[in-house]
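Researcher: Structure for this, please.
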Amino acid sequence: MAEKTLVQTIHDTLFDEMKRDDRVLVLGEDVGARGGVFRVTMGFLDEFGPERVIDTPLDECLIAGVSIGMAVDGLRPVAEMQFADFIFPAFNQIVQEAARIRYRSNGDFGCPLVIRTPYGGGVHGALYHSQSIEAFFAHVPGLKVVAPSAPEDAKGMLIQAIEDEDPVIFLEHKKCYRSIKGEVPDDRYRTPFGKAVVRREGTDLTVVSYGLMHHYAVEAAERLAGDGIDTEVIDLRSIYPLDMETVLGSVGKTSKVMIVYEDNKFLGAGAEVAAQIAERALFELDAPVVRIGGAHIPAMPYAGSLESAFLPTADTLEQEIRKLAEY
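Model: Predicted structure, token format:
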């Protein structure tokens, strides 16, 4: 075991997978000599050369389209969208082509493509460097969407994504890149998709979250433990496939639930979690399902004070958990 940051874990895992399997390659804007904006691919060009570390034009549609062709032809491309906000020119390629290749070919073809991208706010990135895109893509059958919050999960889920025969959107919260550290096993392992994890056991209420918000939820829960409020915290890790069994099991135990995500609250990924709880566990509840999400405005503001107002924080969650516990 070694303690690593999230970004170091992703770097090391991708490097090791490229050493292990020469079908794996990376492509994207500035992934070569610069090593990517966040240095995820630093040193890759020297090790693997320009045929497997491909600096592309500033053209996300091209990145996705070329990657799909490579994947169908037997390679294992790992495409980087420099920021999640830039992915929308590639939306047609990802949704209309990559997600539907297996269906339209009656199972004859897969598309083993990984699209990595940093997402989320809290870094003063403003309109075009702060978006959460998970709800857009989790809506599309044929795509898997994952958002590991812990370095250990990032390693296992990235290996799983590279080995998957179908396309995976691999979301990396940029504020977590260097602020979150954790023990990462040296051995090669896979973390299956569609399996949430209970990070903190509790009996009074359940908080369901992922990404940066998961860390805020744990922080708030630890604070409240001193006041006798025992909060169970679930990290979804995988947005689609979605592990509702773990969520429903926890709700059955605590009878109260809060779902937290930083994307716009309206129709965010947490709305599906809330809907399934209402459908499948209504009579287990002692209080209404609570959702905490980002403000319903077009984009995250640039001004620090407004960015703080947009994003839920550990303080926000502490207040809302306290309210729910008293219900």
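Researcher: Any notable elements?
Model: The domain at 2-184 is CATH 3.40.50.970 (Rossmann fold). The chain has a mean pLDDT of 97.
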